[in-house]
Amino acid sequence: MLTCATIAEVRSHIAAARRLDKRVGLVPTMGALHWGHLSLVTSAREACDFVVVTIFVNPLQFAPHEDLEKYPRPLARDLELCGSSGADLVFHPEPAEMYLPAAATQIQVSGISAVLEGEVRPTHYTGVATVVQKLFGIVQPDAAYFGEKDYQQLLVIRRMVADLNTPVEVIGCRTVRDDEGLALSSRNVYLSPEERLRALSLSRALRAAREALDSGRRDFAAIEDRMQQILLTQGQAKIDYATIRHPDTLGQPDPDGERFVILVAARIGATRLIDNMQWP
Ligand code: AMP
């Protein structure tokens, strides 16, 4: 497996892969890899001939009060996991390699970025869209793999790719959970054992909503109340949102609609977690 810290090195390896007519797949991550990330690498491996994983804790997507400094960065372990999962190249730049001091360009995807996460983290998706577009420019992948765990992020990236005519196929991959239902996340390492138990309230709330929809209920407000109850009583969570939305627009759901997405964001202690489930 190749490892690169500079854009120039990545470009030369990609050019070599292209000369061999290889299909290039990209898996962007912030590192602290877990089975969720590795499932994206596995999907890329199955469909592509040259798999690039990027590990970059992107300062642009963190607000000043967020956890940029303390975000885990176990690079040696991450490289081992990438190697054993079948990555061909890992790009792990420093921030100075990615952002010129005079950089003045950012990608703002309006509308879809402004709701839910956007209300709580108003600059977050501009940071995400900017770095993902830059990685698309550097790697020029045929396909890029993202987790449904970050459902709104996936919609933002799909919107951006459509609007900018970026020739990348965006592939969404299913959320990987632990045996008890907790969605894997790099931020789970912040949870104490007691908080980890409380964090199970997120997936329980989602499952309760999904079961309500399964049973034919469409009284969304009452279902959302029940989700809040679960988060408060089982999680002692501080809730940002627990809501049922239209799966494409994240607008209010239509009771006659055939598809929904249920999304939660809540703080367990000091750790902010997000999760979602689609229906059906
Ligand atoms: P991150 O390192 O948190 O920026 O995540 C990098 C990629 O991995 C994103 O596309 C995430 O949606 C995806 N991802 C994170 N957690 C999971 C998970 N539990 N299951 C599937 N994909 C995930």
Topology diagram in text:
Blueprint: E1 2-4, H1 7-19, E2 24-29, H2 35-47, E3 50-55, H3 75-85, E4 89-91, H4 95-98, H5 117-120, H6 124-139, E5 143-147, H7 151-163, E6 169-173, H8 193-214, H9 220-235, E7 238-245, E8 260-268, E9 271-279
Parallel strand pairs: 1-4, 2-3, 2-5, 3-4, 5-6
Antiparallel strand pairs: 7-8, 8-9
This protein binds adenosine monophosphate (AMP).
Describe this structure in words.
With 280 residues, this protein is of the alpha/beta class. Helices cover 40% and strands 19% of the residues. It is built from nine helices and nine strands. The strands form two sheets. The chain has a six-stranded parallel β-sheet with strand order 1-4-3-2-5-6, with helices on both faces. α8 (193-214) runs antiparallel to α9 (220-235). It is globular and about 55 Å long. The termini are far apart. Adenosine monophosphate binds at residues 29-30, 36-37, 39-40, 146-147, 149-150, 173, 175-176, 183-186.
